[in-house]
Amino acid sequence: MLPEDIVIKPIITEKTSSDIQEGKYTFRVAKKATKVQIANAVESLFGVKVIKVNTAMVRGKQKRVGVHQGKTSDWKKAIVKIDMNPAEESYYSKGAKEVKLTKKYKNSIDEFTA
Asked: Is the pLDDT confidence value at 36 over 90?
């Protein structure tokens, strides 16, 4: 599956807007997508480092329009926690020289709030 096929759209409510301060973003995702696929898709689409993914299946509701009765479709929700402060990593190379790597990740998803 392509990342565009996995992440369908963001979910923007009062609760999800307040969760953005903690680094948690909520998306509607494909029903067959796994947590690993969701994490990889969010990392590739938005350029952030994903720490944790929680998923939940949302059941459709019974709806009625006049005399006709039906059901909305079931869908899958993913709450993705991202790394808010990507720190430098350091390691020792040959000759006992310390090498520092800066992570090239963003600390927020700008497209989510725009």
From this structure: yes
Report the pLDDT value the prediction gives residue 102, as an integer from 0 to 100.
67
**Which has the closest alpha carbon to 76: 27, 13, 111?**
27
The separation between CA 16 and the C-alpha centre of its own chain, rounded to angstroms, equals 12
The pair phi, psi for residue 78, each rounded to 5°, is -125, 130
pTM: 0.80
Walk me through the domains of the chain, giving residue ranges and CATH numbers: 3-113 (3.30.70.330)
Residue 7 burial (CB count, 10 A): 22
d(CA 31, CA 51): 21
Rounding to the nearest 10 degrees, give the CA dihedral for residues 55, 46, 24, 17: -110
How long is the chain? Answer: 114
Question: In whole angstroms, how far apart are CA 68 and each of 59, 63, 65, 72, 102?
Answer: 20, 9, 5, 13, 59
For the chain, first and last CA: distance in Å?
26
